[in-house]
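Quick one from the shared queue. A colleague (R.T.) flagged FIBIN factor as missing a structural entry in our internal table.

Convert sequence to structure tokens.
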Amino acid sequence: GLSLREELTVLGRQVEDAGRVLEGIGRSISYDLDGEESYGAYLRRESAQISDAYSSSDRSLSELEGKFRQGQEQGGREESRLGDSFLGLLLHARALLRETRHVSSGLRDKYDLLALTVRSHGARLSRLKNDYLRA
């Protein structure tokens, strides 16, 4: 049993870590694209949306901590109501994390597909070059 504050701290750290991982993935894909503008712009937009989702969940968690402190001071019924609010926000944060993980997986799949396409085009270009030099 972790305390509520510890759980919130752990959740906040996980959100930050996931954000950094996604930013790193976005940067590595941009480098691998070798200046390909349209796909890079798409990935930057996706990364910004993910960052916005993380920022929103971080703000929600900060607001939740403040509300939770107020609820402890007021006690009784309000504490029960706040617990329900906390549960709702926690479920919302969990949903945001799942969505982010899903988007991250999609970005990884698109990166793999792009890498295969680039290799395929490279092989085709090499074959065409060899055919041209032989002719």
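The helical segments are 4-32, 37-74, 76-134.
The mean pLDDT is 78.
Added to the table.
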